[in-house]
Specification:
With about 150 residues, this protein is mainly beta. The protein has one domain: Cupredoxins -  blue copper proteins (Immunoglobulin-like, Sandwich). The protein is built from two helices and nine strands. The strands form two sheets. It has a five-stranded mixed sheet with strand order 5-7-8-3-9, covered by helices on one side. A four-stranded mixed sheet has the order 2-1-4-6, with no helix packed on it. It is globular and about 45 Å long.
């Protein structure tokens, strides 16, 4: 079985900025993803956009289980295994307004009906910084992962 893909929660020592790295990631169905807080100055969460988690809009596949890591202190980690193909958007609860969001594409984009996330439309309930931070799905598939533009 493959090692989990790793997404780091990072920021500069002065705490002036925060982000997930990579911000966009493509994985095969059944692969685990581990978030690790590498930011010595902040606590972070990895939280799915889903009505069952803080009443948020659904931005994960219809049959996928939502998640919330709770607050991860520096060097803390949290892991989810993705069993449903589709697109998963997530955020950091205390830093969403700063644009700390990420997108994971799961599955084979060449498979029939792999796309199971039609709800990824403009969502007026999300902060503008979050909406503009999500990387393009096509670019994630093309490159495999996307680092945030610094």
């Amino acid at each position: 079985m493959a090692e989990p893909a790793v997404i780091q929660m990072v920021g500069p020592p002065d705490g002036s900025d925060v982000w997930f790295d990579p911000i966009g990631l493509w994985v095969r169905t059944g692969r685990a993803v581990r978030w690790v807080n590498r930011d010595a100055g902040n606590s972070h969460t990895a939280t799915a956009y889903h009505p069952a988690v803080f009443g948020r809009s659904r931005r994960i596949p219809a049959h996928a289980r939502p998640w919330n890591s709770d607050y991860l202190l520096p060097n803390g980690s949290f892991e989810v295994t993705f069993t449903e193909p589709g697109v998963y958007d997530y955020y950091c609860l205390p830093h969403e307004h700063a644009g700390m969001v990420g997108r994971i594409v799961v599955g084979d984009p060449n498979a029939k009906d792999w796309w199971q996330t039609p709800q990824l439309k403009v969502d007026s309930k999300l902060p503008a910084a979050a909406l503009t931070a999500f990387p393009s799905i096509a670019e994630i598939i093309k490159r495999g992962y996307i680092h945030r533009a610094q």
